[in-house]
Amino acid sequence: MTGASPGSIGFETARTLAAWGASVVITTRSDPQAALTALRQSLQTVDAAMDVTAHPLDLSRADSVNRFAAWYAGTQDPRLDVLVNNAGVHLDLLSQWKEPHLSADGFEIQWRTNYLGTLHLTHLLLPLLRDTARQVGEARVVNVVSMLHTRGSNAGLFAPPQPYNSWTAYGLSKLALVHATFELQRRYAETSKVQAYCLHPGAVFTNIAAKGLAGNRLIEAVRNALAPVEGFFLLTPEEGAQTQIHCATHPRLAGGLYYDKCRPAQPSAEALDRAVAARLWDETEAWVKTLR
Question: For 235-244, how does the pLDDT look when each residue is reduced to its tens digit (9 = 90+)?
Fold first, then answer.
């Protein structure tokens, strides 16, 4: 489970799965031990609390992804039934950036984190998913996307649109992740029994907006003052976690689909282009191989 800091839908997903008896590994970019402590304290039983572990993971850094994948593969029982790719960033909510903010290796930061980092991790863990599927009959990859994938265009996946707009960049990262979900299903579901799902969690009251508004003191102050009102209209993290919990656990759930409110939904027309998905997958896979 990536992106499981307290107050997030990832945290609530991990808490539910652990309470149901799953062995859960959570990751956060900063202070995973604090997240682990909070998660254990939130669980009702000692048995569930003891079956969760935490590890640092920064999806914007190849070395961090490589270290996590190597650590997980080296654990005593590296079984992997479900990979929940929940972590992501939505920055510059006020569209103040005039130029893209770049990762250390030169990519637009939302693209680097939400798409490239997620696919890097998924490719590294695919052998474990396939091994698990051979043993128990199925494994799953669950990608948390957004209805904002509709802001992305297929042309923008290969040539970033100009002028730069951070919301468009975010939409592109999520459109790419929808494509990756569908392509993973086409390539691995029948032959390897690895099912892939993507979903929109809904409008949820979490700390992701606070990160997106960081640096604007006036807006931050106004949002803090209006937090009770915002929380009234938005889903709680527990409510927002339900669709990814559904995709991770519901028996015989159809893969290769986009889910909303625990039901199949219609993605954007751009997301249905198989040729684009295949090209993007191949180019991303080639990039991932350069990082090993």
Answer: 999 999 999 9
